[in-house]
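Materials and Methods. Structural model of DUF2182 domain-containing protein. The 261-residue sequence of DUF2182 domain-containing protein from Paraburkholderia caribensis was retrieved and submitted for structure prediction as follows.
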Amino acid sequence: MGTLKAVANPRASRRAFFGVAALVFVASAALTVAGCVSMQTMSELPMPGGWSMSMTWAPMCGQKWPRVAATFVGMWMVMMVAMMLPSLAPVLWRYHEAMGEAGSMRAGRMTALAGVGYFSVWAVLGVIVFVLGVALMSLALRVPSMARAVPIAAACVVLLAGILQFSRWKSRYLACGRMLTATHSASKAWTGGMRLGVHCILCCAGLTAVLLVNGTMDLRAMACVTLAITAERLAPFPDRIVRVTGAIVVVKGLWMLLQAS
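The predicted structure was written out as tokens:
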């Protein structure tokens, strides 16, 4: 009886863990879709060079910059939860199991702290992306020659992102992004999650750049990047997935370069 109970508890804990993860994923995905649909109803500003600037980077009538920034970072975080959780959940579960007390409340708290630490790093990245995006768009509005160069610059970014997939940088941080050291210290759980978040950001730098170039509110781009990130983390042969993704992104970059020129 004791053995059956020991087996049943981890199974019940596993179901509960992935059930909660699935609910969080569905909620964040639904909010992301709603946000994208809302943004798509807003007109874009035509720019020299044949592209259009999204209103994501500009305040609407009566809005103040702090509110614009808070809205962007909020949408960014909801989007990142939806995109990263499918590949993060197995890592967090292994961390939960490694605590040696899979059914305990303490293991759950440590796992939650690690997850919050992980996404806090993505929140900081969201702030950086917003500041850089506003600065670049403001410069493009003031300097027409720079606005005309944006399509070529975007194509080069995508091309470099594809090449990055074949680098040792990618292999190194892809391996680091699968590990989270178990600890019974709340502060170390938080910092461990943050460290994992940094590794994931560095690992996904190229794919994140592709997403930003194609539009942060583009559902198709989000879906493709999410599938690529999840596949390269969970597939039995991640190196093959990384190379295939890299080849696709390189072709995309060359096509964009051809169109821009």
